[in-house]
Write a structure and sequence with these properties.
Number of domains of chain B: 2
Distance between the termini of chain A: 12 Å
Helix content of chain B: over 70%
CATH topology of the largest domain in chain B: MetI-like fold
Number of helices of chain A: 13
Strand order of the largest sheet of chain A: 1-2
CATH superfamily of the largest domain in chain B: MetI-like
Radius of gyration of chain B: 23 Å
Structural class of chain B: mainly alpha
CATH architecture of chain A: Orthogonal Bundle
Largest interface: A-B, 103 and 104 residues
CATH class of chain A: Mainly Alpha
Number of helices of chain B: 11
Order of helices and strands of chain A: HEEHHHHHHHHHHHH
CATH topology of chain A: MetI-like fold
CATH class of the largest domain in chain B: Mainly Alpha
CATH architecture of the largest domain in chain B: Orthogonal Bundle
Number of strands of chain B: 0
Largest sheet of chain B: none
Number of strands of chain A: 2
Number of domains of chain A: 1
Largest sheet of chain A: 2 strands, antiparallel
CATH superfamily of chain A: MetI-like
Oligomer: heterodimer
Order of helices and strands of chain B: HHHHHHHHHHH
Structural class of chain A: mainly alpha
Distance between the termini of chain B: 24 Å
Radius of gyration of chain A: 25 Å
Shape of chain A: globular
Strand content of chain A: under 5%
């Protein structure tokens, strides 16, 4: 049985004060904006400031008309550009998540099984890039991948290639950038999960004749399921809407939905279309966000 | 607990960390390169500090850095207050009305694509301006509000996880000895969760300092942050000054992280010693 937390004895008013401020803040600046996005996604582009038509209009003296324009949505689903951008974003995010898992799992595992001192140093090394600017780290890859960049220069000097490889502004560069930037987001929750693992289970399995790979597959992997899921979600969900990396590394053909939204908004000033893109993207991602939240709830429940 | 080394895992760690650090090291090395071509090493004139000199005299970058610094400091301080309250409430109060919503609202910004948050935030500010005349135009204020909203979610997570590991008996003892709840919070709870609050502040600062997308949406003319200036430069290709900026950032972050790690290790030891 759980003991009642002492501060709850303060009663409703005290509690209320503590949570009301952040609650109202998030309600006003996080939830209400989505309602407005939804509203504007149903209006028309207009040459005005702000550049959209109002939803409610007085027609005649006493009648208020609501004008819902579904054209933005119809447009999204008929114009191949948007459909392609959505599908491509999901594909890129999914492949990047799998690549992050393949690279990140052994790293998280290695850290979890290191001695405490080594572990702290390795963790620090994972966290450090995470604290330096994402923009600058993506920028670093431009210097590495471009035609007269570091990788080409090294390969040319070694005689491996005879003319520079075309890597920058290709899908390859975009994948490298996304995997590189999101890797710490996968390693950290996975490590937090693996750290709690009872390694004696593996010893027991091996004593009973299980091969190390089999033991990993049958014991470690299933037990780290929540860590794998939480880490994958932290990569997949933001990667679907990623803007900076495709814009800097992907080149003009790298069609990602985050970039489409950005261009609709900033270049075309098509606020209603950008809003409709945001709503569809959000609807696509909400199930994953709820999944993430339930995985997190399970993780913290098992930690107690 | 057994520690084991396997050749496979060690190789993976080596390759993984090389992948994480080669880009960073290359920026540091080439920040000392004299050539304007950035990635072609000019052996005759390098290493040089000339790009450091030119960065520190670049008005555009310095102005943007000043704006970024202001936004980041205000944002971090505000986010820490809101995030600590939310994290404290979520960890301590088992049930209250709106718990589910608050939990969802503090988890969602962590994974929400920034383009969505940025766009929705801007549309809110535009609608508010039409409706009540505030905020008049967009700039540092709107940007700071935008940053606080997503960075407080990170602070909440950090504070909440620290709260869930601390011994509730300490609070109860203080209450039994007659301390009022507010006093208990400031004398017992706050000092214990202080490391979490400090890391929350640093995290919020960094998130704001690095943010490009939400700033671009919520900022107005005349308020360009450092990432916005860097982005517009980087879109045109590599620039030696950006390498310098990256090197300086890495240096500051490394010093900070090591200082905080050492400080926390010491504080942890001291806390252990006083507990024994």
């Amino acid at each position: 049985m759980r003991i009642l937390p002492p501060l709850s004895k303060v009663g409703v008013s005290g509690r209320g004060l503590v949570v009301t401020l952040p609650y109202l803040w998030l309600l006003l600046f996080f939830v209400v904006p989505f309602v407005i996005v939804l509203k504007i996604s149903f209006s028309d582009v207009d040459l005005a400031i702000p550049p959209y038509t109002p939803l409610l209009e007085w027609v005649g003296k006493n009648s208020l008309a609501i004008k819902l324009d579904f054209n933005n949505y119809a447009f999204l689903f008929t114009d191949p550009l948007y459909v392609h951008a959505f599908l491509n974003s999901v594909k890129v995010a999914f492949v990047s998540t799998v690549l992050c898992l393949l690279i990140g799992y052994p790293i998280a595992y290695g850290i979890a099984r290191a001695t405490p001192t080594t572990r702290n140093i390795l963790l620090l090394l994972v966290v450090l890039p995470f604290w330096t600017s994402l923009l600058l780290r993506v920028y670093a890859w431009i210097g590495l991948l471009k035609a007269n960049g570091v990788i080409n220069n090294v390969l040319l000097a070694l005689g491996v290639i005879h003319e520079p490889l075309n890597m920058l502004y290709t899908p390859f560069a975009m994948y490298v950038g996304i995997v590189y930037s999101y890797l710490p987001f996968l390693i950290l929750p996975l490590y937090a999960n693996l750290e709690k693992m009872d390694w004696q289970l593996l010893e027991a399995a091996e004593d009973l004749g299980c091969r190390p790979w089999q033991a990993f597959y049958k014991i470690t992997l299933p037990l780290s399921r929540n860590g794998v899921l939480a880490g994958s979600m932290l990569v997949f969900i933001p990667a679907v809407g990623e803007f900076v990396i495709p814009a800097l590394l992907g080149g003009p053909n790298a069609l990602m939905i985050g970039r489409v939204l950005w261009d609709e908004f900033f270049s075309n000033r098509a606020w209603p279309v950008a809003s409709a893109v945001a709503i569809v993207l959000l609807l696509l991602l909400v199930p994953f966000m709820m999944w993430y939240q339930s995985v997190q709830a399970r993780e913290s429940a098992s930690a107690r | 607990m057994n520690y084991r080394r396997s050749f496979f895992i060690t190789t993976c760690l080596g390759v993984g960390f090389a992948f994480l650090y080669i880009p960073i090291l290359s920026m540091v090395v080439f920040s000392f390169n004299a050539s304007k071509l950035v990635t072609v090493w000019d052996a005759a004139n390098s290493p040089t500090l000339k790009w450091y000199y030119s960065l520190l005299h670049n008005e555009e970058i310095l102005d943007a850095a000043w704006i970024s610094l202001k936004v980041a400091v205000i944002n971090a301080s505000g986010a820490v207050i809101l995030g600590t309250l939310a994290g404290f409430g979520l960890a301590r109060f088992e049930q209250f009305r709106g718990r589910f919503t608050l939990n969802a609202m503090t988890t969602a910004p962590l994974v929400m694509p920034e383009v969505i948050t940025g766009l929705s935030m801007l549309l809110l500010f535009v609608a508010m301006e039409q409706l009540i005349g505030w905020p008049a135009g967009r700039g540092i204020t709107t940007m700071t509000i935008g940053h606080m909203t997503f960075s407080m979610a990170y602070v909440t997570v950090v504070v909440q996880s620290r709260m869930s590991t601390f011994d509730i008996a300490l609070e109860e003892a203080a209450m039994d000895l007659g301390a009022r709840p507010v006093k208990v919070f400031f004398l017992i709870t706050l000092p214990i969760i202080f490391p979490a609050i400090l890391s929350g502040w640093l995290l919020a600062f960094t998130l704001s300092w690095d943010d490009l997308v939400i700033s671009s949406f919520t900022s107005g003319p005349g308020a360009s942050t450092l990432p916005m200036v860097v982005f517009s430069k980087v879109r045109l290709g590599v620039s030696p000054e950006i390498n310098v900026l990256a090197t300086l950032t890495i240096a500051v972050v490394t010093v900070m992280i090591i200082a905080v790690a050492v400080w926390m290790a010491r504080a942890g030891k001291a806390a252990q010693a006083s507990a024994e």
